[in-house]
Amino acid sequence: MPSQVLFYGPHDDLRDILDQVLVGCEVGTLQAYPTFLDLYSAAFRGLGDLAIVDSLGSHIGLYPNEREALAAVGKALPTIYMTAWVMRLAPADLGVAAIILKPFDIEVLLATVERALPQRRTVAASKVAPPRAVGNQSSGSEAV
Length: 144
Hints:
Elements: E1 3-8, H1 12-21, E2 25-29, H2 36-44, E3 50-54, H3 66-76, E4 79-83, H4 91-94, E5 98-101, E6 104-105, H5 106-116, E7 133-134
Parallel strand pairs: 1-2, 1-3, 3-4, 4-5
Antiparallel strand pairs: 6-7
């Protein structure tokens, strides 16, 4: 049975990339829902193995309730937070398994997902050669 990845974020192109490179996973989307409450509800009901949350934060950091929402989702299932803004926070500070800075390297994404998924699940690289970096490279932020 494929791992279920719940994706929450405003970018369809990022969801499509995740769907292509996370072989062995089904990437579902919750972006049609207006709040993190919907993501938390799905996670709490056991609908996923992993959540990937694309940042909705402003250029100065997280919106006021985003940190608490991330922590709540992170308690329900492993969560990866993606952002284009350099943060001086550790994943534990947000209650998530990992933070990935955009633009990101596909191998970093795959390794991060592999570590975050429950041990019985595995993720393999796609046979299609994806681009080396994904995201807005002109954001003015530092990338890994």
